[in-house]
Amino acid sequence: MKWLLRGFFALLVVAIAVVAWWLFARHHAAIPPAQTTAAKLQDPALIARGAYLATVGDCAACHTAQGGKPYAGGRALPTPFGQVPAPNLTPDDATGLGQWSFDAFWRALHEGVGRDGHALYPAFPYTSYTKVSREDAFALFAYLKTLPPVRNQTGAPSLRFPYDLRAGLATWRTLYFRPGEFVPDPKQSAEWNRGAYLVQGLGHCNECHVARDNLGGLPSNETLTGGQIPAQNWYAPDLSTHAHGGLEGWSTDDIVTLLRTGQSRKGAAFGPMADVVMQSTQHMHEDDLRAIAVYLQSLPPRPAPAPGGSQVDATARLDRGADLYDRQCASCHGKDGQGVTNVYPPLAGNSSVTEPTGINAIRIVLLGGFAPTTAAHPRPYSMPPFAQQLSDGDVAAVVSYIRHAWSNNAAPVTERDVAAYRHTPVE
Amino acid sequence: MSLLSSVCLAPALLVVALSVTAARAADAPNVPDTLKQRIAACTACHGEHGEGTPETGFFPRLAGKPAGYLARQIRNFQDGLRKYAPMEYTVRGLSPEYMHEIAGYFAAQQVPYQRSPLPRVTDAILKRGEVLATQGDPAHKVPACAACHGEHLTGVEPDIPGLVGLPYDYISAQLGAWRTHTRAMVAPDCMATIAGRLSEADITAVSAWLAAHDVPANIHAQPAGSVTPPLACGVLQAKEATR
């Protein structure tokens, strides 16, 4: 009986997918190649604005392979379902956007549909880009058309079954995607609205800063509440500046300073966010950064985390951690965990330390690394990697200690947590 | 609170505030504004003076290698030509200027060479290694190491590293890496060509001889332009590509 029920269920899922696919295909035809380059696209002011917007959207981060030509694609984006190579955005006829008309580009950005009418994988964050205005999309398109064409065939995604069936995408879209547009809130200031537009649209902050579900879908009822980045194994913190928020106590200036310089008195960018700062936000206009900060300031307080955590007595681990901290960490981060402004980030009250999983602190202790290199900090200080020096037990002890010391009050981590991330491939 | 008590209290509060600041200052780490302090991420493994770990051969020596060569290696890790995840992660954000400054720091370090463990090989194998290093193997179109790396194998400014004083494990691992494409240079990659022409036995032989070879009194790289490479070599002809 059970297998009959299962079979029926599977059949139902397939039937829904087929219907969704059929409906999708009926509404999305291929768009013929662009015949001419519209004269309007040649406007230098438009192109300059497009270049700026491409920086805001950090398009090059995904659409450039390691060591490759900018925007020529080929970087394999890791997802829990397999790898998706980012396409070539240079105007090459055979392998890039050469034959794309603006209508095709707009549909890709706004609806997540390729020129040939196929649904695009949401590794391309059209769930956010759908809020980009048509004028901004036009400027972006004008800029991309000015890039030197690069012939680079980027290949097909290598996804596991059943995620390799594009028909499944129609179902995914039914569940998680509605084409939308940014609707300004008349009750808020122009600055707030500008910030909201940047954060929700081109900035695509929510693509990392919220927890995804098992199918990679974004929750419909919350935004920017923090989450583990799938396949990359970093934790993108909650972005609320109010009670229990990941940026609790951050002022507008603190946010602007972090985005512009890579560091603030409250913390430093690292991992994927370091790349975002270096390639994107440090180049943004001050008023846009301020608008983003003003918008983030309006995110509501978060509920207090549930008490509890580990039931085991971690006293011995914390004592060992305190001892290791004094010997290995305090000379830079200070006995009081306050760090040194613009040199070494504070650990007390730092959400990178206290985020729910402990992944960030574990990986930073293991990997070390430089603070972002920016115009403000062209010769950043760095942290030594401790992977060679400290055992899993040592790392668990010192991370547990810094998560618990001073004003911090996050759950301890275990040796097993450290072992799980010691050999995480570096993306 | 009366005005009088406010006036009396104000200096007291100021004293408290000042002493808190003073305590904080005493507690705060004193950070030297030096390059050495900034590059703790490098020196943790490669040593404060770039001495590496000759005992194990795992972390290569950087001290005294030509600055152009060192900067290029950082760039190659950024571009994925050289593959080693912790290095790729560490250097990914460095600007070209910072990269060159760091390379210059290690190039300027003078650290005596230290003997590292040698594999047990026969005299015949060492002899074969010597022939490869000093004369090459014309039958297999393998040039002598000395043809590019300098008469005394101490390297050539600014791009060619010295080969003497390096651990056996390090040299053989690098030649192996060229064969498995986890180490590469901008095309044409002459070292990949050469490594491809060497047999595994030859790699053992040449690595063992180089590691066993006495370090000459003058360990400095030869001046720029003092060798004529026998193979086309991207790194030697082209100036560093600008992105």
From TrEMBL, chain A:
Pfam families: Cytochrom_C. PANTHER family: ALCOHOL DEHYDROGENASE CYTOCHROME C SUBUNIT, BLL4482 PROTEIN-RELATED. It comes from the Bacteria. Keywords: Cell membrane, Electron transport, Heme, Iron, Membrane, Metal-binding, Repeat, Signal, Transport. It is found in: Cell membrane. It comes from Frateuria flava. Residues 45-148, 190-300, 316-406 form the Cytochrome c domain. InterPro entries: Cyt_c-like_dom (IPR009056), Cyt_c-like_dom_sf (IPR036909), Cyt_C_IC (IPR008168), Cytochrome_c-type_DH (IPR051459), Membr-bd_ADH_cyt_c (IPR014353). This is Cytochrome c.
TrEMBL record, chain B:
Residues 1-25 form the signal peptide. Transmembrane segments: none annotated. Keywords: Heme, Iron, Metal-binding, Signal. SUPFAM superfamilies: Cytochrome c. Residues 26-110, 124-214 form the Cytochrome c domain. It holds the Pfam family Cytochrom_C. This is C-type cytochrome. It comes from Frateuria flava.
